[in-house]
Amino acid sequence: MHVKDNTFLITGAASGLGAATAERLVAAGGRVVLCDLSDAVEAHAERLGDAARAVRGDVTSGDDIQAAVDAAVALADGRGLAGVVHCAGIVSVAKLVDREGNPADLDAYTRTININLVGTFNVMRLAAAAMAKNAPGEDGERGVIINTASIAAMDGQVGQCAYSASKAGVVGMSLPAARELSRHGVRVMAIAPGVFETPMMSEIPDEAAQALAAAVPFPKRLGKPDEFARLAEQIITNPMLNGEVIRLDGGIRMQ
Ligand SMILES: NC(=O)c1ccc[n+]([C@@H]2O[C@H](COP(=O)([O-])OP(=O)(O)OC[C@H]3O[C@@H](n4cnc5c(N)ncnc54)[C@H](O)[C@@H]3O)[C@@H](O)[C@H]2O)c1
């Protein structure tokens, strides 16, 4: 799948990994629909120029994501939606039992699962239905879906029951979705980032961020959003990448 002249939907595109991916795909000659809950998505789309459109939307809403997919199909000028890079998500921390002995809040758990896991399914189902209508390209390829997991899916820390479970669900869907969508010529991949310098991580105190950077075997630093975007671009353009989760983490394995 080429990036040039093809159209991609990017969720979570107002910030961090999604914003960097939108920038990279536009620089490579692609067109992008940026979808995010935040109104900052409009300013980012404007910065990216004519090749970008913004759609305010919630990844857990069928109507919102259908509108984003429709906007991408319209922007594609007859070529259809070529790919999705799904980055929207939230981080959450809560112990099962807190210091005072109180049980974790069930609604907070459900919210994380709903946005990170159900949101991913929602984006995949609507994007795949649109891609299945595309004319087949080389090898019969019609589209590619890239989801965002996390190394917390494998190396979850204390307090990450909800976040780790949501991301493990994203990992778990990759292979069955890739197997199912193979008949439509649509690939499904996931990227499991380590710790990246984005607004999501900016709430971590400096000391904790330095400790995390020191724990990375090489390079001893946090990941840069464009390094995520470069992997997304490689996945789009390399047709043999399918049904797999790629850790992008400098070799870190959390204790
Ligand atoms: N930054 C990291 O270190 C890191 C590590 C592993 C995984 N991830 C994952 O990468 C993805 C992107 O994270 P980021 O670091 O760029 O975070 P970020 O907070 O900078 O960006 C996330 C974006 O998602 C949007 N969003 C949140 N909920 C939404 C919803 N319901 N509908 C639509 N948009 C919504 C936010 O408005 C925000 O713009 C997330 O899924 C996150 O879990 C990040």
From TrEMBL:
Oxidoreductase as UniProt keyword? yes
Keywords tagged on the record: Oxidoreductase
The record's similarity note reads: Belongs to the short-chain dehydrogenases/reductases (SDR) family.
Taxonomic superkingdom = Bacteria
Ketoreductase domain mapped to chain residues:
6-194
Does this entry carry the keyword Oxidoreductase? yes
Under the heading Pfam families, the entry gives: adh_short (PF00106)
Tell me the protein's name: NAD(P)-dependent dehydrogenase (Short-subunit alcohol dehydrogenase family)
Q: Which SUPFAM superfamilies match?
A: NAD(P)-binding Rossmann-fold domains
Q: Which GO terms describe its molecular function?
A: oxidoreductase activity
